[in-house]
Specification:
513 residues, 3 helices, 4% helix, Immunoglobulin-like, 48 strands, 50% strand, mainly beta
């Protein structure tokens, strides 16, 4: 059984089996460390070791294969209890923990031992490891007034340009400060088996979400950060999005989980925006909105900065409940490039692979050459969706957005190129196998479905496969294409659908092999 090391910090290490099974290993296995059994009966392809000693050599064995790792050294380790943190779930521990973060030497570790630490917003800093030990909970304060308001933009006197401080759904906007924030930080590790709990279910954050003049905080917001890793932790119950990297580079999420009630508003798992190099490996999501939503700003941000989302890897992840499992958009005016999604399991999500855009996202919204492969979907309402009429935003239900007439191509028109869906098993579908709807003036370039099987649930419900105006509810529909230049179907099987397996309207070429 081959495996390799994905990541090592001063006190933890993460490993991945080399196989093709989505998320779960083909059979349970044991992990030995320095000859002693450390993890019996592991079931997932990604596993981790915690509570390691800094600057120490370890031998890790699975089956007959041994991998050696050496933990990173560190300059210091400070315990937040030494700074007066109570960890009793009652006292406010913000000042104690923030003081530990600020005074820890560069290259050091701030350790949060078991306990419940009530906190207001905390600021991260460069060259830091923040360790949440097993049983440690950072529990967010429930009083909205304890969250400072950050402006959407501030002026840079030297350059004369605006600098983005806070963002809401693709545009600069004043927001309450997030529970953990990093600004221009580098080389940050947040590791351990502890919890960052947004505590929104006990606050007012999930109330009146559409009428708030000030944006809600995220669980974690990273603005122009580099080389930040989250390993092992559980993030839960965020006031809005859980993890929001913004114009950042080298962000990784390894062997961790993100949780929120399935009816909680806008609690996306992670929304990287205009980021370069993001890894999601071995992550479990169960949230109230999209699990992973890759973004690059609305038209203002995309046209001004022309910064695409680039080099994202999603592998060995489990999406249990979400509106969409892996989503591109809708705020992606800067474009998306070099995305790899593979070896994932989607269960009970509304949609599986979901791409959403609309007129007004702009001609810098270019998404092309995207491939999703080796995916299993169970009880997903509609596995595949590409929608160029996405109706959210205040103007989302205007005629300009919903019109099916051929409108002029201009600077507001997005472009979706080629998309390949390969080696997938989609079981117990309900609304439709796939729903692809391109603009009449800018059709989707091509959709290839290769070695994919679909089966429908006997008692399937009906619903709208895409969030767009003036479409009918569907139940057990096959593959629907409207406004796709080229459709290529290879080795596809389908069982239990009502009507034709394939419907293609306004398609220049349809090939089935």
């Amino acid at each position: 059984m081959q495996f390799h090391c994905l990541y090592v910090s001063s006190v933890s290490a993460c490993f991945e089996l080399e196989n093709s099974a989505p998320y779960y290993a083909e059979a349970p296995y044991d992990v030995y460390v320095n000859g002693a059994l450390a993890l019996p009966g592991v079931r997932t392809n990604v596993f981790s070791l915690f509570d390691l000693t800094p600057d120490t050599h370890y031998s890790v064995r699975v089956g007959a294969v041994t991998v050696t790792v050496h933990t990173l050294g560190e300059t210091a380790c400070v315990n937040v209890r030494e700074y007066g943190a109570a960890g009793d779930g009652v006292h406010d521990d913000t000042t104690a923990i923030q003081s530990a973060i600020h005074t820890c030497p560069a290259g050091g570790r701030v350790r949060i031992p078991a306990g419940t630490y009530v906190i207001r917003p905390l600021m991260l800093r460069s060259e830091l490891t923040l360790e949440l030990a097993e049983g440690a909970v950072l529990l967010a304060d429930t009083d909205e007034e304890h969250y400072p308001i950050l402006p959407g933009e501030i002026g840079d006197k030297e350059s004369g340009r605006e600098v983005q401080v806070s963002s809401w759904e693709g545009t600069p906007r004043s927001c309450r400060q997030s529970i953990l924030s990093g600004f221009y930080g580098k080389n940050i590790h947040i590791v351990g088996r502890g919890v960052i709990d947004g505590n929104a279910q006990n606050s007012t954050w999930w109330q009146d979400v559409k009428t708030r003049p000030i944006g809600r905080p995220k669980l974690v917001f990273l603005n122009h950060c580099e080389n930040v890793t989250f390993h092992g932790i559980l993030g839960k119950n965020s006031p809005s999005w859980h993890f929001h990297p913004f114009f950042s580079k080298g962000i990784s999420f390894y062997d961790m989980a993100v949780e929120a009630p399935k009816d909680s508003p806008n609690t996306d798992g992670t929304d990287p925006e205009s980021c370069d190099g993001v890894n999601y490996i071995g992550v479990r999501f169960s949230v109230g909105d999209d699990a992973i939503a890759i973004k690059s700003g609305k038209m203002y941000m995309g046209a001004r900065y022309k910064t695409p989302a680039i080099r994202h890897v999603i592998r060995n992840c489990l999406m249990e409940y979400a509106h969409g499992a892996v989503v591109l958009g809708s705020e992606m005016s800067g474009g998306i490039r070099e995305l790899t999604v593979s070896q994932c399991l989607f269960s009970h999500t509304d949609r599986g692979m979901r791409i959403k855009t609309r007129r007004g996202r702009g001609n810098t919204c270019v998404v092309d050459g995207v491939e999703f492969s080796n995916i299993r979907m169970d009880n997903v309402m509609c596995p595949l969706v590409i929608n160029m009429f996405y109706f959210c935003d205040p103007d989302g239900k205007t005629e300009y957005v919903w019109s099916k007439e051929t409108l002029p191509v201009d600077e507001r028109t997005p472009y979706l190129g080629s998309f390949t869906f390969r080696d997938m098993e989609c079981r117990d579908c309900e609304w439709a196998a796939g729903y692809f709807y391109g603009l009449p003036e800018m059709p989707i370039g091509s959709v290839t479905i290769d070695h994919v099987s679909f089966t429908f649930k006997v008692d399937a419900s009906s619903g709208h496969p895409a969030m767009m105006s003036y479409i009918n509810e569907e139940c057990k529909r096959g593959l629907y294409f409207n406004g796709v230049r080229k459709v290529c179907i290879k080795n596809m099987t389908m069982e239990g659908q009502v009507g034709d397996e394939i419907t293609a309207i306004h398609a220049e070429e349809v090939v089935r092999l």
